Every structure is written in C-alpha cells, then in structure tokens.
Amino acid sequence: MTLLRGFARLVPKSRRLLRIIWPFLAIVVLLVALGSISMDLLSATRAYVGAEGLWSKAQKDSIYYLNRYAGTRSETDYERYLEAIKVPLGDRKAREELERASPDLEVARQGFIEGRNHPDDVAGMIWLFRRFRNVSYIDRAIGIWTKADQHIAELTNSADRLHRAVAAGRGDEESLRPILEEIRRINGNLTPLEDAFSFTLGDASRSTQVVLLAATSIGAALLVLLGAILSWRMLRESEEFEYALRFNEERFNLAVIGSNDGLWDWDVLTGDIYFSPRSKELAGYADHEIENKPEAFFALLHPDDVESTRAAMK
To answer: Is residue 2 part of a domain?
Structure first.
C-alpha cells in the first residue's frame, strides 16, 4: 500500500516534469536529425565531386591512349583505353539503373564501384540520387551527366571504328584522320560539361550548407526562446507562491491578534519562539515585557520546573 501511495505521488510529478521538458526534447531531436541529414548530404555531395574527378581523369586518359594507339598500333595502348573508359561506363550503368522506376540497387552499387568510387561512399551516392533527384541543383547535375554519357557513347563508337581500322590494316594517317578528328571533337565537347557538373555540385553544396545553417539557427533560437519563456513562467509562479505565502501569513497574524486565546510557538530546531500579544496579556505582562526568546519562556516557569523542562526538550 505504501508503495502504491508513493507511485501515485510520483506519477503527477513525472507528468509535470514531462510537460516541462518535452518541448526541449522535441527541438533537440530535431536539431540532431538536421545535423545527421546535413552530414549525409554533404558527405554524398563530396562523394559525387570526387566521382567527377575520377570520371574526368579517366575520360582524358581514354582520349590519350586512343591517340597513342593510333600512332603505335599497340594493343597495350588500346587495352589501357578500355581500362580507362570503364570508369565513365560504370557510372553510366549506375545512373541508368537509378533512373528506372524500380531500380536494382545492387546493379547501381556495382556500377559506382566500377567507376572507382569508394565502397563506403556508394550508399550515400545512391541515397542522394533517389531522394533528391528532382531538386533543382541535383536535377541539373544529372542532366549534365546524361549529356556527357551521350558523348561517351560516341567516343566508344569512334574507338571501336579506330580499332577495327587498325586491325584491318587501314592504319595509315589519312584513313585514321576523320576518326581522330571526331575523337578530338568529342573531347572538346566533354570538357565544358565536366566543368559545369563540378560547378553545379559546388552550388548545391553551398546552398545546402546555407539552408541547414539557417534551420539549425532557427532551432537554436527556438531553444533559447523556449528557455526564456519557461524561466519567465517559473519566476512568475515563484512570485505568485511567495505572494500567497505572505498573504496567508498576514491572515494568520490577523487571526492570532483577533483571537481571545493566547498562542505561542517554539521551533525547537532553530530555537525561534513566538508569543502572541494575547498570550502575553493573559500571563499578566505588557507586550514589551516579554521578548520572543527562549529565556523569556523559562522565566515564566516555576523555578523548580526549569531544569526538568530543559532536560525534556533536549
């Protein structure tokens, strides 16, 4: 039964505490969620910036090895081209899979890995693509990526034609010139697209930082405002309680003064003692003749009772 009464007293206090702290908890949870999302967004954006660097280097390497192959006719140079072009082709495989209504995420993951992206970054890259595909900056970057992949398709066709021409013995400079000019044209078209992709991702990263900073600042401001409101309420309640206490004390004093009975009170812990004016009057003393001190109490006792009373009160 005692346990139940203790629990019954605890529940209202817990509810009151919950009413006080739940707004703080909600805002803190929101700030933590914003922090987590911001870290994921910035990490995924950084991964795409890194992927673009790998893509651009691989694309330039593929052009370089094709030009070498046209001069050396060495299969080693062509194999190096094939190795370099795997990076743009792997990223294209990932993009095309993620553009599907029901993408196979394992295929997309494998494509990004073929693009030489770090395996730990792939999940974030897939998440950013799927969740923010229609956001302006991301949509623009993917549009640039798609155009670049079209030029990569042209490049692979030109490379196949170059390889077939060399294999067929038509590797003289005059025969290969149209193919090499086409490869140079493709390379020229890809360079501004690579720059545009990087600039767009940079704009996306900066805009994301601004939005998240604003959201975090608003959350922090709400915390400060909520703390100020709660402090003001607690101060007001304290003042109201203090006023009620003074009011009740004044009423008690009025009741004591107006009472026909003499009242006295002794706080044995602090040693404070109080004699009402009526109690002094009933004892036959004027108000100023008895001080509110313990010695005054013992002075009113019969001398034979003083020591026993002191002993009893220890």
So the answer is: no
Q: Give backbone dihedrals phi and psi of 273, rounded to 5 degrees, phi first.
A: -135, 145
217 and 70 assigned to the same domain: yes
Quick: pLDDT tens for 68-116.
999 899 999 999 999 999 999 999 999 999 999 999 999 999 999 999 9
Residue 256: inside a domain, yes or no? no
Overall pTM surpassing 0.70 (yes/no): no
Map tokens 């013995």 to a residue.
169
Element (H, E) at 258: helix 173-258
275: helix, strand or coil = strand
Phi/psi of residue 3, nearest 5 degrees: -65, -40
First-to-final CA distance of the chain: 35
Chain centroid, CA 184 distance in Å: 47
- Grouping H, G, I as helix, E, B as strand and the rest as coil, residue 146 is helix
Report the alpha-carbon distance of residue 139 to residue 145 in Å, rounded: 10
Q: Could you tell me the residue range of the domain that residue 117 belongs to?
A: 10-231
Contact (Cβ atoms closer than 8 angstroms) between residue 285 and residue 240: no
d(CA 84, CA 54): 10
